[in-house]
Amino acid sequence: MGISSVGTLSIQKGLATGLDTASLIDSMIEAESAPITILQRSQTSLNKQKTSLQTLQSKLETLQKLAADMDGMNSTLTGRSSTEEFFLYSTSSSDEDLLTLSAQEGAKSGSYNIEIKELAQETRVAHNGCKNTTDALSSEDAVFILKMGEEEKSIQIQGGVTTLSDLKSSIEDLDENLHASIINTGQGAVPYRLMISGGKTGSENSISIAAGTTLAGFSSSDFTETQTAKDAHIILDGIDVYRSENSFSDVLDGVTITLNGKTEAEEKIQAKVELNDTAIRGKIGSFISAFNDTLTYLQNQSYNKDTKTSGILAGDNLVLSMQSRLRNFISKPIDLGEGKNISLSEIGIKTTEGGTLKLDESIFSEALKTNFQGVHSAFTGSGQENGIAGTLNTFLSSFLKDGGGIIQGRTSAIEKSVKRMDDQISNMQTRMEKRRASLLTQFTNMEKAISSIQSTQTTLNQYFWSS
Based on the structure, what is the number of domains in the chain? Predict the structure, then answer.
């Protein structure tokens, strides 16, 4: 039995009229709430469009990044990049235990003979020893000064308080690169030896006890240098090269050389940097995959062939324009300058009936061998002419730029519309609640009036029938 209420009064079926008042009011409110339902459906549709656009933006961002990684342009797209973005290299060493190489952007092919004469190392000095670690080092205030390269740093020694353990901790607090430890040799009357190690390798980073030290028993003469700071030294194709670390990142363009040991006399390590065809193929494969994923998504947002239904962005000019532009990029020949051009199909990248790309491995492998520069130029361009990657990157930038991209503008507009509808729905719902209360009052009054009439009728009937 439906029940409606207003204040302390309740209306239910059969109160006076026998009408299902609650259901009647619900039906009236439902009919008058039709505009709310229409707005909610519009919100649902807009939110689906927003989700679709956000997914599209994510796919375009992935595609743009892959294009930017091999477009041959600088980050602002105003000129050619100062480093080679398309070429990928592999490295090899005839003795990986002693020397390894890694290639990054800007590397060049080459073969080198390398001798490792010295490894970079840090300074290590050891104190002659103390009786224990807990006795005060001095009965009077003093200072311990450590020289690090050309810089001196002081530690204040508090008479009758500072211990060997305290000094160790204070040394490590001087610099994050310093390390101090106490070694118990287990021998003699002074078995506890303080070992100080410089955290940085190289001759410029040597450490020593400064002449200004006044802590008795801790001057430079009370320490023994157990390891001397040295620079790494290699001979690369007959040229002596020195660095403060065992990693050389600025000797060969785009190549980092890491030393792990020294070569024997007259021993030379053969190091090579070569084009990595497999990695290049993988880079292009990733680009093709992202391109196909984006194009397929665009197609499905217009019309899904599998479900034979219109997509959420069917007829959207943005989607139609982007589909057309993407297909245009891959179909037209790429200008190499000087009257020359090349098409993607010539290097094994073919277009399917659905408009997506497919890599013909045999043709592409042959193109890498016989026309590598053509493959390179197809993506990076030649001179001031952009290749497919550069052209695509520039095109996508207008859709994705921060704060003003076309897709971002669309999603922002949708969010504003949804918010405006939220406000409209909220206002309508408030009005419907007031309308419901008004109807409850009206029906309550009606029931009271009818009940009163029925009561009067009963009284009259009793009067006349009793006469």
Answer: 4
